[in-house]
Amino acid sequence: MSDQVKLEIRNMTKLYKTGDGVRNINLTVNLGELVTLLGPSGCGKTTILRTVAGFLSCDTGSILIDGKDISHLPPEKRPTAMVFQSYNLWPHMTVYENMAFGLKLRKIPKPEIQRRITEMLELVKMSGFEKKYPNQMSGGQQQRIAIARSLLLQPEVLLLDEPFSALDAKIRSQMREELRKIQTDLEITVVFVTHDQEEAMALSDRIVVMNKGSFEQIGTPAEIYDHPASRYIADFIGEMNFIEQRDGTTIAVRPENVTLELGDGTGGDIGGYVRTIMMLGHFYEIAIGTDSGIVKAYVSAETAGKYKRGDMVNCYFEGTYRYEPDSEKKKEKIAPA
Amino acid sequence: MSFLNPKRWYHSLGKRRFYEALLLIVFILFFYGPLLYTFMLAFANKYEYPSIIPSQFGFQWWNYVLNQPTLVKSIGLSFEFAFATTFISMIICLPAAYVLARYNFPGRKMVMFSFLLGNAFPKIGIYTSMAIVFYKMNLMGTFTGVLLIHLIECMMMMIWLPTSAFRNVPANQEEAARDAGAGPLRTFWYVTLPTAWPGIAVAAMFAFIASLGESTGTLLVGLPYYRTMTVEMYGVILDYPSTAGAVFSLILIAPNLALLLLMRRYLGADTLARGYKMG
């Protein structure tokens, strides 16, 4: 991953008649980087992606790839390729024809097309599927072909719009891994859109957390996880406990940073009783009922064995965040205690 | 043969189904009866009242009809109009249908609705008003005049069915084609059309059949120069024996039947059903 800027979005605004949309978007993506736009439905992430692809025009601002302004080009002339959530492949064409479509338009000779397709199918582990039709394949297989098809176009920027959201969980993580491997091997610049924070954390070099049409925070997954800039982000990423304070501020702490000890429920940073103990695979989640709501703690199996429902416990926090009461402007974050 | 005994039927089917079956049989006879009768007449060489069934079967009347130059000419003309109508209506309506499917412009619903109006009023009223305009424009008794009448017939189907067919092409697939480097026209040809064609095929079938069957308007505008099969039919009923009429009827019905069977065979019931969707 280099420092050379591949994609730049400058002061871009795109508003719909309903008032939704995105305002004053500024973003640079470096060569070989995978940047994810993360946020709930309606936050504008797909709008930005489609503007880069050329399916939407921006009201103001510009989009540059390799320093060249592409904002006025139609989709077929832009050096981007997009993979949608569904309905990527053309159902009346075989896998081979689907993949050859773009290459034929570029007047590449037939033997070369054949060679490239065979190579690409190997890369996405779909060799031998040339003559199959999309409806003969599973969702995951179809998405693999869709990605392969886009890669064949050798785009400067690859755009992915929630490509794995329609697949089941097991396949999703498999696809994530494969995509990341291909992306890093080939050094492709990628903009990825998703609402799944786990996916964003796993895949990205950098994450852009969005809310209501603007960027709330940009950073690496670790930066965002360890230093969420606002209560919204703290809530959105990973699991977080929120404890309302009497002065209106909120203290937040990650469940894995909560330690328990048997006590009378009045000591520690907060005290309460054990409500539930849930087994979540290789660790346990213990929910403590307190005066300020439920506090969750992640503990090892060994630790969990020491507690049972109804026990009074004291909770100790390690590394907390404080957020100002809810308002339109960004929240203040105080360094961990 | 005791199982044909209605009493046994009654008891095996149960009261309700027995009467339902009876009703169905009556309905089928009522519906197909005249058709069967026509069929029988068309192949009757000798048919004398009061016998119910002809005494002799043969192709005599077919020979007769096919040797009447005016009648044969009308068959050719009917098909000419049918092909012309289908072709021209597709050229006019398909681009319009695409726009109506993809772009939500103000007044879109009104435009879609306006195409229903042609079928909302009694045809003779519409044709008479058209005839008045045609007189002023010297279109009476011309090929174009009759063609226009035929086009009105199929407008509704040619707009509504293809619009729904285009709407059912997932936008992502068209966008994927643009993304891959295809311009709007290429995308339409390689992606939109192949996916939407059942709806368009059904609409074309309707247009063809509607044109073949159009009678009142053609009579009004086409006489005396352009006489399609339907127009000639009026004369045939009056001037020729009923057996000749039966033959001519079958000639009229045959293309419809053939088209339906062809469609069913090559498109399959599934695709046909999809094509009929108008949502």
Salient structural properties:
heterodimer, A: 337 residues, alpha+beta, Rossmann fold, OB fold (Dihydrolipoamide Acetyltransferase, E2P), 6-stranded mixed sheet, 5-stranded antiparallel sheet, 9 helices, B: MetI-like fold, 2 domains, 12 helices, 2 strands
Structural commentary:
The complex is a heterodimer of chains A (337) and B (279). The longest helix of chain A is centred in the middle third of the chain and has 18 residues, at 169-186. Chain A contains 9 helices and 18 strands. In chain A, the strands form 4 sheets. Chain A has a 6-stranded mixed beta sheet, with helices on both faces. In chain A, strands 13-17-14-15-16 form a 5-stranded antiparallel beta sheet. A 4-stranded antiparallel beta sheet of chain A has the order 2-1-4-5, with helices on one face. Chain A folds into 2 domains: 5-231, Rossmann fold (3-Layer(aba) Sandwich); 241-323, OB fold (Dihydrolipoamide Acetyltransferase, E2P). In chain A, strand 9 (206-211) and strand 10 (214-219) form a beta hairpin. Chain A is an alpha+beta fold and 337 residues long. The mean pLDDT of chain A is 92. With 279 residues, chain B is mostly helical. Chain B folds into 2 domains: 2-61, no CATH class; 69-275, MetI-like fold. Chain B has 12 helices and 2 strands; from the N terminus they run H-H-E-E-H-H-H-H-H-H-H-H-H-H. Chain B has helices at residues 6-13, 15-42, 60-66, 69-102, 108-117, 123-136, 143-167, 171-180, 184-213, 216-222, 229-239, 242-275, and strands at residues 44-46, 56-57. Chain B has a two-stranded antiparallel ribbon. The A-B interface holds A 53-55, 74-76, 80-82, 84-92, 101-102, 105-106, 146, 149-150, 153 and B 170, 172-173, 175-183, 186, 190-191, 194-195.
